[in-house]
Each structure stands twice: as structure tokens, then as C-alpha cells.
Design brief:
Helix content is about 40%, strand content about 20%.
Length: about 375
């Protein structure tokens, strides 16, 4: 039986869709190599190879190259790819999330004379030439890139695959972020890769109707504490009214295929929890075990990390701004934070506006998600 996938955008079997996403989530949980998940996507798109890698835009050095088929090169290619790869030149001129393929920037005649395509065509037994890729996201100086490679016989990538890849690249980005945060899997407990117990988060797997299908031990502990989240008619909700509304909006975004993060207020004016919503299966389809989205929840205040140097490096926070940020992530509102630091409230507001500008945020809730996210990386 064939199904048209909103996420992949091409006619593929439902089994293939589910398998590719199961592989991504399992890789995110640390239960199998990420190259396996990329290999599954390569198969869905009918490609010959695929890769995910990180590029430091400041130094031009590539790291964390993951591919089931492609090597970085025997001639230290990974350290000078930025100089000879026209795809990279195009991508670095465009913002994260863009989609790129040969037809956007180079013709076949130019490809015939280009060093990069000579190298690509010499990948053993593959004869690669065409591709579709994305600058998936930026994190400081580092950018994540993902691409699917096609043979010279394939020709230029079809429009439906280009449209599909825009959604698939997002899913790869979600999984890559989660895989980077996961602790080393030293004790697989045999549970589903959607809600493993060994990861340091409370994890809820939800059906398309919003009902909890699976949850891990940390999720049970969080619910038992009754200080932030509870279950009503089988669905996840927050005790705090504003947090409940924000959670509902974030869950809707997840069902639409977009990841999102929101703050969950806790009892006793403690530091808020972060809930991250990650799409698990294509919109409109029911995944394995009826799972559609996965919710990861954690308490960043328990990490106890000193973020001063990190904030200064990422956003250029001044020492005064760092102190204010530190007071806010402990659960204090702006006025209370100002009183604790011995500064006027107008000074705190001015510092807050500068922090908004430096982090690209516009509201305190957005800023807190950005700051608290550092604590769990």
C-alpha cells in the first residue's frame, strides 16, 4: 500500500517512511549508528549515498562526518572542502534551512570542468554527481549540513524530491541535536527507542490524538512529583495555565512537523522546566506503536553549570548581562533579579533589551528557553 507523506513529499511505502523515522529516533537515542538512519533516508529518496557533517564556518574545518557510503577523502579533503566545493560556497551565502541542488548554481558543462565533481565522480564504484542538500541549522560557529547524493545516470533531482527533502532535513536536524545530547548508552534496558530509561530526560511519546502511548521512568517520576505536569484523560498537560497554553501550541507545531521548545512553570516559583517537542512521524500518518510526536522534558537548574564563559562566547554577553541571565534562569522574574543584583529595574530592563538583540529573541520566555537550553547540552 502506498501513502503520500507530508514529511517526505514523495510516493513511498508507509513501511519505508516508518522505518526511516524509526532509524532517526533510534539514532537520536544512541541505540544505533547515525549512519544507519542516513542510509534509510538515502533509500527512501532513491539515492546512492548520503552524509551529515558539521562545518566550523570560522576555521573551515569539517568534523563529525557521518555517512554510510561516503568518505571525507584520503587527501585531507575534509580540511579544504570549503575551498573547492561550489555547493558549500552557495550554502554559506544563504541562511540556515535553505535547500540547494546543482540546478540552482551550476550547469552540466561547468560541472564537467570542476575539481569538486572530479573528486565526487571518483568515489569508488559510485560515480556520484548530483545531489540535494541543506544547511540544516547553525549553532555558534558550527553549521550542520546534510545531503543525499545521486549518480550521474540519475540526472538532476526531481522537484518532488526537492520539496520532500525540505521536510526530511528538519527531521535529521532534530535527531542530530538529540543524539549530541544523549549520554553514552552503556545499559540498554530493552525498552522502545522512543522512550528509553537511560537518557537523562523525562520522555513522553504521544499519539496523533495527543494521548500518551509510551513514557519512561523519569516521566513517571515527574508526574508523581505533581509540581509541573499531569495527565488528564490520557493527555499531557501543565498545572500552570500559561504553561498549559504554550504547551498546547508547541504540541500543535509538532503535529505539523516542526520541533519547538517551551517553558513549563513549576510549583514554588522554582526554575522552569524545558519541554522540547520533536516530530516522530509524518503528519497525517500513524507511526510504529501509534506514535506521532515525542516530548522531552528536563530541569536545567539541576545541571549546575557555570554559563558565564559560554554566554560570552556565543552571544557576547557582558559580565553584568551574564549575572542577570544567571539570576533569571534560577526562576526569578526581572524585578526580583534586579533586586538580588542590587541594580535598578530600569538598568535591568536595558540589559534585557541588549540580551534580546544579542540572542535574536523578543520575549523573556524565548530568552529563557535559549539560556536554559545551554544547561542541558
Amino acid at each position: 500500500m502506498l501513502a503520500h507523506s507530508f514529511l517526505l513529499g514523495v510516493e513511498v511505502t508507509t513501511v519505508n517512511i516508518h522505518h526511516a523515522h524509526e532509524q532517526l529516533l533510534a539514532a537520536a537515542a544512541g541505540e544505533l549508528p547515525f549512519s544507519n538512519a542516513i542510509d534509510s533516508l538515502v533509500g527512501v529518496f532513491g539515492g546512492e549515498g548520503g552524509v551529515v557533517f558539521e562545518l566550523n564556518r570560522r576555521t573551515g574545518v569539517i568534523s563529525n562526518w557521518v555517512s554510510p557510503t561516503l568518505r571525507a577523502g584520503d587527501d585531507d579533503y575534509s580540511n579544504h572542502i570549503n575551498a573547492i566545493n561550489p555547493r558549500m560556497h552557495y550554502s554559506l551565502r544563504h541562511a540556515q534551512g535553505h535547500i540547494v541542488y546543482e540546478g540552482k548554481f551550476i550547469d552540466d558543462r561547468s560541472m564537467d570542468r570542476h575539481e569538486f565533481y572530479d573528486w565526487l565522480g571518483n568515489v569508488p564504484e559510485m560515480d556520484l554527481r548530483y545531489f540535494i542538500g541543506s544547511r540544516v541549522y547553525d549553532a555558534g560557529d558550527v553549521t550542520l549540513f546534510h545531503s543525499i547524493e545521486f549518480s550521474s545516470n540519475h540526472g538532476h533531482v526531481e522537484p518532488d524530491k526537492i520539496q520532500a527533502f525540505a521536510h526530511a532535513a528538519k527531521a535529521v536536524g532534530h535527531a542530530w541535536k538529540l543524539a549530541g545530547r544523549a549520554s553514552t548508552n552503556n545499559s540498554i534496558d530493552g525498552k522502545s527507542p522512543w522512550t528509553p530509561d537511560y537518557l537523562p530526560w523525562a520522555i513522553f511519546a504521544l499519539s496523533p490524538s495527543g494521548h500518551i502511548v509510551e513514557k519512561n521512568a523519569r516521566a513517571d517520576e515527574l508526574l508523581e512529583s505533581r509540581n509541573a505536569l499531569y495527565v488528564s484523560d490520557g493527555q499531557l498537560d501543565a498545572f500552570d495555565r500559561a504553561s498549559s497554553d504554550e504547551l498546547s501550541r508547541s504540541l500543535l507545531a509538532g503535529y505539523a512537523g516542526d520541533s519547538s521548545e517551551t517553558l513549563i512553570a513549576t510549583a514554588g516559583n522554582g526554575a522552569p522546566l524545558i519541554a522540547q517537542i520533536v516530530p516522530a512521524c509524518p503528519s497525517g500518518l500513524t507511526g510504529p506503536n501509534g506514535i506521532s510526536i515525542v516530548v522531552y522534558v528536563w530541569n536545567p537548574a539541576q545541571q549546575g553549570r557555570d554559563l558565564g564563559k559560554v554566554m560570552a562566547r556565543l552571544w557576547g554577553f557582558t559580565p553584568a548581562e551574564t549575572k542577570l541571565a544567571g539570576a533569571m534562569v534560577q526562576g526569578n522574574d526581572l524585578n526580583t533579579a534586579a533586586d538580588q543584583l542590587g541594580i535598578s529595574r530600569n538598568t535591568a530592563k536595558n540589559q534585557l533589551q541588549k540580551m534580546f538583540a544579542k540572542t535574536g529573541t523578543r520575549r523573556q520566555s524565548e530568552l529563557l528557553v535559549r539560556l536554559l537550553g545551554l544547561l542541558e547540552t
